[in-house]
């Protein structure tokens, strides 16, 4: 049963980058990721956050306020951001995440904050305010002294801004 559910989960994420969802698609899939620091860039590369797989993670090093940033390549209208937490261990490391979207650094848009802590494999969804537009999406842990940001996957639901 577990493998069946996992297969369904993988199918959904795969679907996310190809299927229409009320006109929105996962515009983060296979885009460029930057982390504030890396636990191991070769073992847990940033690309693991947008590769459509739920059985891997990217991981920052330990720091107070680690962040993960996605460059969507161009501006999109963004409806919501989803984060799928890691499985197997350490799921509670995802907590107090601030979600921010912007194109120009002098105009940051907040899409809200997730308090948590997350449960094993939990899918977290934050909805951005209406008409949120941006090229960059950032997740940052904003509480505590020693944190690691290490999601299994991040999906950004957007559509062309034109
Ligand atoms: Ca992944």
Task: Tell me what you see in this structure.
The protein is mostly beta strands. It has one domain (2-160): Jelly Rolls (Sandwich), CATH 2.60.120. It is built from 1 helix and 8 strands, in the order H-E-E-E-E-E-E-E-E. A hairpin with a 6-residue loop joins strand 4 and strand 5 (109-114). The mean pLDDT is 90.
- Average of per-residue pLDDT values: 90
Give a short account of the largest sheet. 8 strands, antiparallel
First and last CA, distance: 44 Å
Number of strands: 8
CATH topology: Jelly Rolls
Layout of helices and strands:
Layout: H1 2-16, E1 25-26, E2 32-35, E3 67-84, E4 97-102, E5 109-114, E6 123-127, E7 133-141, E8 153-160
Antiparallel strand pairs: 1-8, 2-3, 3-6, 3-7, 3-8, 4-5, 4-7
Bound molecules: calcium ion.
Short synopsis of the structure:
With 162 residues, this protein is mainly beta. The chain contains one helix and eight strands; from the N terminus they run αββββββββ. It has one helix at 2-16, and strands at 25-26, 32-35, 67-84, 97-102, 109-114, 123-127, 133-141, 153-160.
Q: Notable features of this structure?
A:
single chain; 162 residues; mainly beta; Jelly Rolls; eight-stranded antiparallel beta sheet; 36% strand; binds calcium ion
